[in-house]
Amino acid sequence: MSSSLSGSSHSSRPNEDQGHAQLHALEGERQRRNNRQRERRRLLSSSQLEESLARRRANYQRLQQMEPTSVLNQVEAMAGNLLSACSETQTSSTYCIRVLHNFLSTFMNKNNILYM
Q1: 110 in Cβ contact with 70 (< 8 Å)
Q2: What average pLDDT score do residues 5-23 get?
Q3: What does DSSP assign to residue 45?
Q4: Domain that holds residue 90
Q5: How far is CA 95 from the centre of its chain?
């Protein structure tokens, strides 16, 4: 009985080692990338550095503005899929509207909680 236990724990060990090695490699690559970026910034003149920081801020703000649009697009797509499924299955319109209303209400409640 003990030999079967040791065999099963031994078989998972190579997977753990492989996963650890992959994480280690990813972390090393992240550190190298960060070091290269840090070195590039160090070599910039002050005006170039200001320009670079302004671009980074603008990109960040643009991403922040795009997120709600992306969420809205996803909700519209889900609502459209729900209505399409209702029409394809010939489910009653009243039932579909009630399901859609509940879905959107739940989504809006969760969305308000997330963005408060």
Answers
A1: no
A2: 65
A3: -
A4: 69-115
A5: 33
